[in-house]
Amino acid sequence: MAAAIGALAKKLMVKALIFGPTYKEMLHPEVLPTAVRKQAEQARANELDAANLFNITWRAPDNKIRHVVLPKALTGVEANIIVLVGREFPSGSHKVGPAYTTLIEGELTGEIRPGENTIIGPSTGNFGIGVAYIAKLKGYPVVVIMPDQMSAERYQRIRNYCGRLDLTPGTESDVILVLERTEEYKKDPRNKVLAQFELLPNYRFHRYVTGGSALEVARTYGNGRVAAFVAAPGSAGTLAAGDEVKEKFPDAIICALEPRECSTLFNNGRGTHRIEGIGDKMVTLIHNVLTTDYVMLIHDDDCVMGLELLQRQQARLEHCLHLQAGALQFLHDVFGISGICNILGAVRLARLLRLGPEDNVVTIATDGFDRYPSVLQDLARRKGAVSKAMLESWFEQIFRGAASAEILDVRSDGEKQRLFSYKEATWSKFGYSSAYLESMKNQSFWDSEAEKIHQLDEALSRARRTTSTVS
Ligand SMILES: Cc1ncc(COP(=O)(O)O)c(C=O)c1O
Question: What is the pLDDT of residues 149-165, one digit of tens each?
């Protein structure tokens, strides 16, 4: 890597690159020069101002990690359910983080250069939105490859960032078609693929930035530790935060969630489902299955109905739970469908593990409600108006239900082997050698990938010093 970085220094002098933060600055933006921080803050008024790159962080301007703690009247469990809030990231979801780190690492090794390359973003939506956004800020043309049956709001966002869409048939669960289409783009060396399912900058962003943020936020609740980290994998980038949590708290439980309708990690199942962004019918290359302890299934429509309850039926839900009017207002707009999936998984895990008031369960709301109005309109068409009886029975089923049959312990060697085999079957087809796949069976592979962050940060800092354009 050192040689590649050296070669880069020269190239950087030729063409202006637009830089952004290091990994460390994303976890700790407070270390940025005050002027850069201020510029970033002002840039929030104009989404397309490149200074927004410095807003890629879980932190608000006051340096606090953006999060909510769910009311216990809602969760029905004693443990603290802490949710990191992703919708305030530029472009509206934390997926912009891996899009940025994958592109910047490509620039740092000299692989990707503005004016020479087109960026390709294989996605089910949010990563594609993030890629289109980052490419726009950094001056690249971009093609987003995604299934043709995702929410209408996603396509619109990508078009707003001047991204070209290449749609493959199907839904969330047809990502493999997206990957196959991506292979066609790879034939032209001018196309550079930000491959979220395969490339480790996604792992690095979430392990270091999301994991570090999860650990920090938990410090102020309960016993200050993280008892469990829960996330529904799409690329499984977010799940990498669990590796950071486990490094600090080896006893912490890491739980991956899947739609019941597409139970790939659970039992090699495959099917279509309604939770956009997750359940992609594969074990992704960057999923460190060694640290995943449990897999839990969540019924997809529980998530859509849960979103209806928290978003549109809030006042009636408050009444039903004997809460003060407005007590749930702070949750308005905070969740998308996968965010509801994550909180249901967190609540159900806390219940199954009998966690107490000192225990913290951390999870994630990847994006907010802004990209799902069409999904709730569809729910209204399917189910009709929500009566009082419906509201009460939905609430019971969604927030109080938890079947122990729907959680699987994957800590045994046999289960790890099953997950490795599934991974190998997918990725050997895309040219990954058995030696590389074998190396992923060792935790040292993942730790050494995380350790590269220091070197990458130094390279970026150096590159910023040696060129005039630091946006
Ligand atoms: C809405 C939503 N939730 C969850 C995820 C899953 O996150 P990850 O890809 O980090 O596993 C995605 C990924 O695109 C997403 O768009």
Answer: 887 888 999 999 999 99
User: What angle is formed at CA 404 by the lines to CA 232 and CA 328, rounded to 5 degrees?
Assistant: 55
Angle between helices 443-466 and 2-14 (to 10 degrees): 30
H helix runs in 58-119, sequence order: 72-75, 96-108
pTM above 0.90, yes or no: yes
Ligand 1 within 6 A of CB of 238: yes
Quick one: which of 220, 294, 195, 210 has its CA closest to 252? 294
Whether residue 169 is predicted with pLDDT greater than 60 in this model: the reply is yes
Separation of 303 CA from ligand 1 center, angstroms? 14
For residue 240, the CA-to-ligand 1 centroid distance in Å is 12
Two tokens at 270? 């495959």
Say which residues have a Cβ less than 8 Å from residue 11's Cβ, sequence separation at least 6.
Answer: 110, 113
254 pairs with which residues across the strands? Answer: 229
* Ligand 1 binding pocket includes 284 (Cβ within 6 Å): no
CA of 194 to the centre of ligand 1 (A): 15
Ligand 1 atom nearest the C-alpha of 237 is 10
Q: What is the pLDDT of residues 222-254, one digit of tens each?
A: 999 999 999 999 999 999 999 999 999 999 999
Give the span between the Cα atoms of 137 and 147, in whole angstroms: 24
